[in-house]
Design a protein that fits this description.
126 residues; mainly alpha; 3 strands; 11% strand; extended
Length: 126
């Protein structure tokens, strides 16, 4: 299906894709799956701070968008694995670049935040 895309157009579906792939949880899930499939509990352990509800919602969205596969194994207890699709793997360069940028520039961002907060703080009356 060919869809004309313009990310700046208000109602363009490409904005939904940008929301999905730009979401912090999606970035962390895609990055976590770069070396192969993981179980739900392994993903939860690899991404501290993600709630079960948010992990489930994000995985469902990634699966719906064709970025992740969900494989249920017929064993007791049930085992579910998640893996990147070919389309999902195509995001790895972008995800790695975001990771590298964030880790490289966190000091700069922290300094900018401190400077902003200092300017925005109400001045004490003398």
């Amino acid at each position: 299906m060919q869809v004309e895309a313009d990310i700046y157009a208000k109602n363009c579906p490409s904005r939904q894709v940008l929301d999905r792939i730009g979401d912090a949880w999606s970035v962390l899930i895609v990055g976590s799956l770069k070396d192969g499939s993981l179980r739900y509990t392994e993903l939860a352990q690899r991404i501290p701070g993600v709630s079960p509800k948010m992990l489930t919602q994000t995985l469902r969205g990634l699966e719906r968008d064709g970025l992740v596969t969900r494989t249920v194994h017929p064993v007791v207890p049930p085992r579910v694995d998640y893996a990147l699709t070919t389309l999902g793997r195509s995001l790895l360069g972008l995800v790695d670049a975001l990771k590298q940028w964030a880790e490289t520039h966190i000091g700069d961002v922290a300094e900018a935040r401190e400077a902003y907060d200092a300017r925005a703080r109400p001045k004490a009356h003398a």
